[in-house]
Design brief:
Its cofactor is Mg(2+). By secondary structure, the chain is of the alpha/beta class. It is built from 10 helices and 12 strands. Helix 6 packs across helix 8. The chain is globular, with a radius of gyration of 19 Å.
């Protein structure tokens, strides 16, 4: 099984490489990041796909700087839309299956029950708008799946868990937003879901939601991270936490208030989402091991 991975240095891409190396010797993986393949360059994408002839293209690359996208719409479009068009076209031409990662930001966040895959989209930011356009581009490939996910964390890159660890060490007190709700998702679980899709027969196509099991707020997520970090010995003392509304922490891009997505459809396809709480312990242990 030949798999071309884009976004190899990101959270999901890094976890996917670990998974392939540890458990899937039958996968011949070509892992690329921006320095090795500019996916916004159609000719470069066509050349590499033509040479490697992958069975699967897994696009884990994205412009994820949500606030910066508001002042850099062209940069966000190049990565989140144009690059996806290039990959979809190459996948279609060379008969490869395309896996593309998307986001809860395609919805407006104004709901009181989990978003279903077929709910009308209404993105409220440049990031969300480009990700929605990227979904449509991905699905121009006849054999493609879009995996929407949310609140991604891992031992790699920059993410909320690692930010909380750093701030917990630096400050005695933290104010955390408590009126945005969603489901944290471990990047390693997204990688595992992608691998299950790769080896499924038949492979599911279309739009699916995949996120960690359990609804919380950023405050609840932070509290769990910091409490577990104290137990793991990565933090000497629990900082004082204060819940605050979004209005007290304005950002250039609007955040969805409610990001919980229904995962019933992907579970029915045999790919089971898992709880994010024990994944915090796993990530903390990995970070602790890397420090020793």
């Amino acid at each position: 099984m030949k798999v071309l991975l884009t976004g190899a240095s990101g959270q999901v891409g890094s976890c996917f490489q670990d998974l392939a190396k540890e458990k899937f010797p039958q996968v011949t993986l070509l892992a690329t990041d921006r320095s090795q393949l500019d996916i916004s360059d159609a000719a470069a994408v066509e050349r590499l796909v033509g040479q490697f002839q992958p069975d699967v293209i897994f696009n884990a690359a994205a412009y994820t700087a949500v606030d910066r996208a508001e002042s850099d719409p062209e940069g966000a479009w190049n990565v989140n839309v144009q690059a996806v068009e290039n990959l979809a076209l190459a996948a279609q031409r060379h008969h490869a299956f395309l896996i593309h990662i998307s986001t809860d930001y395609v919805f407006n966040g104004e709901a009181d029950k989990p978003w279903a895959e077929d709910h009308p989209c209404d993105p409220q930011s440049i990031y969300g708008s480009t990700k929605l356009a990227g979904e449509k581009a991905a699905l121009t490939c006849e054999q493609a799946i879009v995996l929407r996910t949310s609140w991604v964390f891992s031992e790699y890159g920059n993410n909320f868990l690692k930010t909380m660890l750093r701030l917990g060490k630096e400050r005695p007190a933290l104010s955390i937003i408590d009126d945005q709700r969603g489901c944290p998702t471990y990047a390693g679980d997204i990688a595992s879901a992608a691998m299950e899709i790769i080896f499924a027969a038949p492979r599911p196509t279309g739009i699916y939601h995949y996120s960690g099991v359990g609804e919380t707020s950023w405050f609840g997520f932070a509290e769990a991270i910091l409490q577990k970090a104290c137990v793991a010995g990565l933090l000497e003392k629990m900082p004082e936490l204060t819940p605050i509304p979004t209005t007290q922490f304005p950002t250039p891009a609007k955040r969805p208030k409610y990001s919980v997505m229904s995962t019933q459809k992907i579970a029915a396809a045999g790919i089971m989402p898992v709880s994010w709480l024990p994944r915090i312990d796993l990530v903390l242990q990995k970070l602790k091991t890397s420090l020793s």
